[in-house]
């Protein structure tokens, strides 16, 4: 094998391994971030559920007749 062919082969192999390494690095970073995103989504979902329950309670308070009467007395 000629020395130029050997040098070309070594350079090609180095480039291929470099590309493969970057692909694996990005894949594992993606997996790590997607797991974190799933945790964040679960936390935000729980927070939304809690806020919806609070809104329901506030709607019940505001729609009660006693609340409206109190507001009318305050406005007088």
From TrEMBL:
Keywords: Membrane, Transmembrane, Transmembrane helix. The chain crosses the membrane at residues 6-24. This is Phage shock protein B. It comes from Pseudoalteromonas xiamenensis.
